[in-house]
Amino acid sequence: MTIALPGSSKKGIGGLFGRKAKVEKKAPTAQKQLSRQDVAKMFSAKPEPREVVKPARLNRLEREDRAELGSLRGALYSED
Predict the structure, then answer these.
(1) Spatial contact of 7 and 15, defined as CB atoms under 8 Å apart
(2) CA–CA distance, 5 with 13 (Å, rounded to integer)
(3) pLDDT 10s digit of each residue in the chain, 80 long?
(4) DSSP codes, 46-66
(5) Can you give the residue ranges of every domain in the chain?
(6) CB atoms inside a 10 Å sphere around CB 24
(7) Is there a contact between 6 and 13 (Cβ–Cβ < 8 Å)?
(8) 8 close to 15: Cβ distance less than 8 angstroms
(9) Residue 66 to residues 36, 61, 73, 75, 77: CA-CA distances in angstroms?
């Protein structure tokens, strides 16, 4: 049986004894960072209109299933 120690899953056993992981300095990859105004110019104020997608036609089996369900529904609500 093993015991899970807090902090051991993320930092390993060194995290339990106070060892710190090596910290890397992260610098932005782009030489010139964009300002908020530059980023805003890249996007339009209004969303682009969506294309209307026409529904596909039912195939033969789907039409037969639909007709069969309709007849079953009719039999369910009939007063015979």
Answers:
(1) yes
(2) 9
(3) 566 666 555 556 666 666 666 777 777 778 888 899 998 888 888 888 899 988 889 899 999 999 999 888 888 887 76
(4) SPPPPPPPPPPPP-HHHHHHH
(5) 13-77
(6) 6
(7) no
(8) yes
(9) 55, 8, 10, 14, 17
Length of the chain: 80
**What's the pTM?**
0.29
Q: Quote the longest CA-to-CA distance of the chain.
A: 82
Please give the structure tokens belonging to residue 77: 């609500």
pLDDT of residue 63: 92
Angle, CA 11 vertex, CA 10 and CA 15 arms, to 5° = 135
